[in-house]
Specification:
By secondary structure, the chain is an all-alpha fold. The chain contains eleven helices and no strands.
Length: 215
């Protein structure tokens, strides 16, 4: 591991910290943070490419810039020479914060993502399409899913475990992504009260096939 490289699990921790802290800020009544949510909510990877500089500067303070050190409490104007791994960590965290912004905040008990997908009216076919999306299109697919959940005013429970599932689905190995897929599919069908006997095997086979094509 290079001097500045962060372990994969640490990247997830910092992404969760960023989305939790920034969501608290844009839900506060502090006028200094008016427009913070919209910085993330209006971003589209297909149109804008990488996260914007405004997104990056908002996340900056929650990612460490030394070998395992604690991140600053707030972003500063100080210039840092950051590694490729650190820049990637910032962009991935910004992507998760954007998804958090698009999902919205709604009254009622928060639920896991798989449950939210079912409550939002996703059909079995659309669920399968989402969970077997090729890696390059997964962010766009989740954006559409979160927009639907937001439209139905369903609150997702943004736990560390949920953040880890989303992070693994977008950026993890095929095995890690499969763990997320199976968890969401299980929640989806349990919420509906039916679990197809072939759901898990079909999902696993499809994701392995997709991974083989990408590698």
């Amino acid at each position: 591991m290079s001097q500045h490289e962060l372990p994969f699990q640490k990247r997830i921790v910092y992404a969760h910290r960023a989305l939790t802290k920034l969501a608290a800020l844009w839900n506060s009544r502090n006028s200094n943070y008016n427009g913070l949510r919209s910085i993330f909510r209006r971003w589209r990877p297909g149109r804008d490419g990488e996260p914007t500089m405004d997104m990056r500067s908002s996340v900056w303070g929650y990612v460490p810039f030394d070998n395992g050190g604690e991140p600053a409490e707030e972003a500063t104007e100080q210039r840092f020479e950051i590694s490729r791994e650190q820049a990637e960590t910032i962009d991935r965290a910004a992507t998760l914060v954007a998804l958090r912004a698009m999902a919205g905040d709604h009254p009622g008990a928060p639920v896991p993502l798989g449950t939210a997908l079912q409550k939002a009216g996703l059909t079995d076919l659309r669920l399968m399409r989402l969970l077997t999306t090729s890696r390059s299109m997964r962010v766009e697919a989740l954006i559409r899913a979160f927009q639907r959940i937001n439209h139905e005013r369903i609150m997702i429970n943004w736990t560390m475990k949920e953040t880890e599932r989303i992070y693994n689905f977008l950026f993890g190995s095929a095995e890690a992504a499969r763990w997320s897929i199976n968890a969401w599919a299980g929640e989806f069908f349990r919420t509906r009260g039916t679990i197809p006997t072939d759901a898990g095997s079909t999902t696993t086979a499809d994701i392995e096939h997709t991974s083989t094509l990408e590698n």
